[in-house]
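Lay summary. Proteins are chains of building blocks that fold into shapes, and those shapes determine what they do. In this project we predict the shape from the chain. Here is one chain we studied, written as its sequence of building blocks.
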Amino acid sequence: MLVCTVVVSFRTRATAGCSIAVIILSAATACMNAPETALARLSEANRLAADLLVQFTKAGDAANRAVMADTDEASVAFAREAEQATQAVQKDTDALGPILMGLGYSNETHLLQEFGTRFAEYRALDRSILDLAVENTNLKAARLSFGPAQEAADAFRDSLDAVASSAPARDTWRIKALVATAVANVREIQVLQAPHIAESDEAAMTRMEKRMVTSEAAARSALEMLASLVPPASRPQLAVATAALDRFAGLNSQIITLSRRNTNVRSLALSLGKKRMLTAACEDSLRALQGALAKRGFPATR
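And here is the predicted shape, written in a compact code that computers can read:
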């Protein structure tokens, strides 16, 4: 019985010793591996924070190019590029948050949340800017002004020049004066189109539009007076001139409508104003986050 007791006691102690050894070994291994795991997570946090700033910068640059693009195709392409970079920013933000919380980095978590709040406001504004930019209404208005509207105005002038050249001697100077008046009034409307397209103040645009209406009325009045003076042979050319004026007036109406939308002017103003301040605030948060993470480290193990 004594031997059995001793053997049992020995075996019990041996088993207990073995268990203790296993526990100690496991704890030691955990202690050795824990810094490595935390260090890896810190490294990943640094990588994500750096990529956040890179992607945010890409998004801003692409959005600015969309605003400044001179074709619809370029605006759409740059807007798409900006959206892709913006989505990358959101993806990095979503991945970084849990890592910082798992590491117990309250300051860095706060900085990331601060960036998230600012970025949400930035993203909403940027979406509005890009929606305006891709419409390109000011650019389209300028193209109409310097393209089809210019051609219609020139056709109007050419038709009236033909009318003047065939005027009877007794009415030559009167007809030429009326032709000059009609052409000058159309040119006055053309001159007003460019500043109207560039203008952002609605009151100023309204004043220009009133001058356009007055000039068009003067041109049509001159045509009516010409109709009573020119011989029957010149009336077909006068009809061509009237049709050219109608075409020009219709194009001018389109130009005014597009110009009133002012999408290029508005998107540029937003980019240079509120968005610029939001961009700076977001960058400040990201740089502060990077700086805080850079200070994190682990003491050397013995």
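What the prediction tells us: The first helix runs from residue 2 to 68.
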